[in-house]
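Q: Got a minute? One more chain.
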Amino acid sequence: MKTGMKRGLMTAVCTGLVAAAIPMSAFASTSHYADSKKIAGDAAWSEWKKEWETVATDYTKVAINPGADATKLNFTWQTKSDNTTPTPIVKIGLSKKNLRAVRGTTTKVDTKYTNGVQYVTNRVTVTGLVPGNTYYYCVVKNGVDSEVRSYTLSSTDDVRFLVVGDPQIGASKGQTVDGAVNAEDGGAANTAARNDSFSWDRTLDIAYGQNPDTDFIVSCGDQVNKTGKVKEEEFAGYLNASALAYLPVATTIGNHDSLTEDYSNHFTTPNETGLGETKAGGDYYYSYGDILFIFLNTNNYNAAEHKKAVEEAVASNPKAKWRIVTIHQDIYGSGLDHSDTDGMILRTQLTPIFDQYDIDVVLQGHDHTYSRSKMLYGDGQQHDNYEFQLNETGDDYDWEHAFDKTTSQKIALYPEDSDAQAQADLEAFHKDNACYTIEDTEGNQVVNPKGTLYITTNSASGSKYYELAKTQQDYIAKRSQNWLPSYSVVDVKGDHLTISTYQITDDGQVQPLDDAFTIVKN
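A: Always. Here it is, folded:
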C-alpha cells in the first residue's frame, strides 16, 4: 500500500504509407463540460485563480513516466538555460537522509514554445528499483533541490493502475465559467486551461484517494488542447496535478498532442521503436511484471509500422501473460463523430494485428464518451477500399467524406435522408468497415476468450464531452454519457484482469459507471 501520497497524407492501406497527424477541426462541437467553479466552491476557486497565475508560467513542472520495466523510472522537466546549465540530477533513496544522485542529459527546447526564452529539457532515468520498497526523491533544478517526495513500487504480482481519457487541458474554450467565457489565450490568460487544470487535479485526487494502492496511470491521449500551437500553460496545468508527483503516467499521443515536438519536450517514453512517428513521437512499450504495455501513435496511419512495433514489443517479453495496447483513436467506440469516421477506417487495419499478436485489451480515448465492447476478433476478410483525403485547400482532412479507392468517388459521411444514392454509398462504406466478429459470451466474466476487449474512456477532466452515436453499435456491450468526469481502475492479479469504471458527481461522490468486467486466462 502507498501512504502519505498525492500525485503527410492519410491512407487506409497497410503498406507504403506516409506518416500523418490527424487534426480535429470539423468534428461536432459540444456545450457539455465541467464548470470548475461550480464543483470547487467560491473559496477554493478564488484560491485556484490566484495559484494559476504562477502555475501557467511555470514551464519546469516534472513528469514521471514508466521506464523500460518496473525497476526503472523516467523523469523529465524543463529549466531555463544560460549556457552554464548543470547536468540534470534526480536524488533518490530509501530514506530522506540518504539520497543518491542520478545524472541525466539535456536537449535544447525550440524557443518558439517558450516565448523566446531558451529552455532545455532535462531527462534522467533511474534504475535498480526493487518492488516492495518506498523511495524518496527530489529533482535538482538548476542546482536547487525540490521538495522531497515519495514513490512506492508495489509488488508486480498484484498490479493496479488507473486509466484516464482526454484530459485535454484547455478544451473548455468558449464555455462560461465564473461569469466569463473561457479563452484559449497564452499563459495565465488561457482561462480554459485554468478551468480544466483544476478539474483534472480533482479527478486524480479523488481516484487516487479511492485507490491508494495504485501503481501508475495510463492516459489515452490528448493531454492538452491547442493543436499545433504553443501551449506551455496547458502542459503546466496538466503536470501540476498533485497525484503526478507520486504516480508515473504513461501517456499516449493524441491528435491534439501530435503536431508538434512540444509533447516530447515534457515526457520521456521507454523502448521507443522509431515507428508510427509524428512530430510528437511514435510507438513505444514497457513491461510491468507479467503485463506488456504497448502504446501506438495512431495519428500515423501506417499500419505496417504499427505491426512492426507490436512485433518488437512482443519479442521483448514473449512470455508476458497479459498484453495491453493503448491507442488514442477509438476503433471500437460509440461516440460522435470518431467511431464512424477515422476510428472506423483504422479498425480495418488494426484488428488483424491485434488478433495476430493475441492482444487482450485495447484502451482508447478520442470520443469523450464511455463504452465497453463485446469480445471482438476479425472476420479474416480484406477491408481496405476506403481512405480519408485532404480537403481542397490542403490544410486539413476532409472529415465530411470518405474516398472510395476502387471508384475514385467521395462518400458523404452525413448525407441527407432524402438522398437515396448517398445513403446507399454510406451503407456500402459501413459494410466494408464491418471487419469484426462478435464472440459468443455471457455475463461480465469471460474465460480464455478468443477476442479482444475494447474500452473507450470519457474525459477525465470534463473539459469537453461528446454525444453518443445515434444508434448503439452491435459490437458495444455497454455505453454511457452522463456529462461527468470518469476514470477506470484495472486490477491484474495472476490469471484475472478486472476493469471497473467510475464517474465523479459535482459534489465529489464516486459512482460505478459500469459493472466490473473480468477476463480469466487459465
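A: The radius of gyration is 22 Å.
Q: Perfect, thanks.
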